[in-house]
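Cross-check.
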Amino acid sequence: MTLTVTGGAAGILARVEDMRATADVLDAKGDAARELALRVAAVAVHDAVLSSQVLSPVTGGRVLAEVARAQLPPEGLAWVALEYEAAAVFLRGSATVYEETDAALARLAELGRGVTGVVVLNVGLLAAGGIALSSLLLDALPADVADALTPDAFATWVEEVGEDPLDTVLGGLYDEPWVTDSIVAGLPWVLGTEVPLVLGALTPWTFPPVPLSYEQVVAGVIGAGGLLGLLADGTPVVTPDRAPDGTAADSLAALFGNIGRLGDGEASEVRVTAVPDGAGGHSWIVEIPGTQDWAPESGTNPSNLATNLHLMAGYDTAMEAAVLEALHQSMSEVAAQHGVPLAQVQAQPVTLAGHSQGGIVAAALAADRGNGLHVTQVVTGGSPVAGMDIPDDVAVLSIEHTQDPVPRLDGSPNPGAPGWTTVTRDVDGADGVTAGSPISAHGGGVYADTAALISARAAEDPALALALRGLDEQFAQVRDGQAQVFQYDVRQEHR
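Predicted model, tokenized:
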């Protein structure tokens, strides 16, 4: 049950352009030091110094010694010039190595996607072929053999074996998390290259086939569902709830505990906390729940399967609009209470936090520079958000579990940028986690436990303490001030 911290203060971000620019600066400094070294060396052969050798050999010797010392290591000008120029050569070489390594990894990843694609495609073709040929085979086989191959007979066999095939698949994802990465990365390759080659003229794809992007694959799923009246997004209806569940979060664990209590099945919920900053203003914490309705037919709860897919395709969603409306209502009420312009309140810093789908909504809102929010922090738990273009000045804390496949559903690792910290916990054997069950590893309660462990470890981990600094400041203000909690029921309507 170890914690692994990547990115943020613990990460390394190499920009080859910056490395080469720094190398140019070092070269310039080396040239300047070398010029000074030549000017100092010229003192040794100056006429006055040469004449002094005859009149005062001791003084002349001291001058020559000082000239020599000004050239030699560890602080001599000639040596410093050499160090600058050597560092410049090293940086340029490192930049080239980074570029070549990245290119090699990209080629390897593309090969991996292709291999995965072939495997996925072939399994699919075998399954499709098996379905198409099953009736012919059953007719051709002896009756007793055919009876043994029927679905009922297979179900009886599974019951006798005592192992559910779905449990086997889920157990594999739990034990081998990289499988999720491989499948997700391979699907665009399958749909963009293999399928056109197999189906040929029956498909609208052009040749030569081009791999689809992740967003295009998800958009295709949404489009296919739309033809059947499924996966529809709606129009949000946001209603204040004057009896909020729970109090203002004063710790990272309490934050995830609050998020886990949001929603009642028929409707989703959003909680907004106005936190006094001690100077007459406020900061804001927004809590967004995860998926609550997995049915493909979109109902009244916008925290549903359709919202997941629309978010990952880069579409606007009812849930994002609902969060914006909830914040607008909260800020309007606080502005009226304090007699300040609404625009002044809307400029105050906002922390967006969510579990699973809620984290995707939070990241999507942070990435949207045109929604009027002053987002300064994003907290996600079990959310696939690596592809979100979150500005560099937004601090991101992503919490993930090794055995949870959901954060891997975007097929990419989180950026290792200085402002984006990812904390991964191995939850095998943890309380609340059933061995072999990735669903339990995704549970909100387990993420709340992980949040508590992260806060405890921050006391001895400077990188983690830095990642939590902004959040801890808000939590301290919650404990010191009169935080005001607003809660909203969120439903969606369909035309």
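DSSP finds 17 helices and nine strands in the chain. The first helix runs from residue 16 to 43. Passed to J.P. for a second look.
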